[in-house]
Amino acid sequence: MNKIKRLLIPSLVAMAASVTAAQAEKLTLYCSAQEDWCQLMARSFEDATGIDVNMTRKSSGETFAQIKAESSNPKGDVWWGGTGDPHLQAAEEDLTEPYVTPMRGELHDWAISQATSAGDKTIGIYSGALGYGYNTDLLAANNLPEPACWKDLLKPEYKGHVQMANPNSSGTAYTTLATMVQLFGEDEGFDFMKGLHSNVNQYTKSGSAPIKAAGRGENTIGIVFMHDAVKQAVAGFPVKVVAPCEGTGYEIGSMSIIKGARNMDEAKKFYDWALSTDAQNLALEVNAFQVSSNTGAEASPSAPDMSSIKLIDYDFKTYGSSAERKRLLQKWDEEVSTLPQ
């Protein structure tokens, strides 16, 4: 009998250890912000809570498509970052869960209004204005005039010097498309996109890629959120940031809990933690220059001053709706992307 016990006890201990490991807290995080910020958020949450994080970084449009494709068997728990429009579409299509965080009292009104418009299925985590940046060295080397407005980018001398992302994969680029429609009206807005198409050298997958290419000297002008251009300038690249003279749109970067999340308790813990001042202050460690949604979060002096930028009254509810987003993307595919360059 004693011999049987000696043989049995180690196996029981091993079994208990395997059960404990299987029950260990974990989180699958889909992240649509810049790679270094995504990594820092994941590792910092692990350090703060002991919860293991499996993080995947993709652009907003790609992440939305993945969540939709996985809806019958969800793999992710939380979607953090990226423009608010696809988060709103995910909410409308019932791909995300409603959650009212106890952190709301610490947030700016615009973050709460994002939640309200989505039936509490998403919330604002940061904000940033759309614009563009250009490589001053390349501009001078090509004897190009300094652009100051959106319509300057349509000038024939900029042919082959402009880069932006594809609005099907990038939230930044969809915000650009929706901004032009709201700023100039739909007909003139699409005329703008068609004229811009003639000067675009590449449509990238990621929204920040055009200004990274400009920083490296591989491209002259990149249409991006202004904070992404500031990041390149602060890093020492010859990039100048432009707030277009006509006015511009902006984003409310958002966060959502994926419907049917396998690790719902951990998802809510991350959601609450990500809205705290400590979590939002991490942005400064990776030179992410968005405006944070927590009113107590620190702001970098290098960040764009939103109060000095001419912002349009961006209609998040309309342009974040499933029907309008699909319609505009289809129209861009059919009327803009097919044009010769």
Walkthrough of the structure:
Strands 1, 2, 3, 4, 5, 6, 7, 8, 9, 10 and 11 form an eleven-stranded mixed beta sheet that branches. Helix 7 packs across helix 8. The chain has 341 residues and is of the alpha/beta class. It is globular. Helix 2 links the parallel strand 1 and strand 2. About 3% of the residues have low confidence. 43% of the residues lie in helices and 17% in strands.
Q: Which residues sit in consecutive blocks of at least 5 with pLDDT less than 50?
A: 12-22
Order of helices and strands: HEHEHEHEHEHEHHEHEHEEHHEHH
Q: Output mean pLDDT.
A: 93
* Number of DSSP E strands: 11
Distance between the termini: 84 Å
**Mass-distribution shape:** globular
What's the helical proportion of residues? Answer: 40-55%
Largest sheet: 11 strands, mixed
Proportion of strand residues: 15-25%
Count of DSSP-assigned helices: 14
Q: State the secondary-structure class.
A: alpha/beta
Which radius of gyration do the C-alpha atoms yield?
22 Å
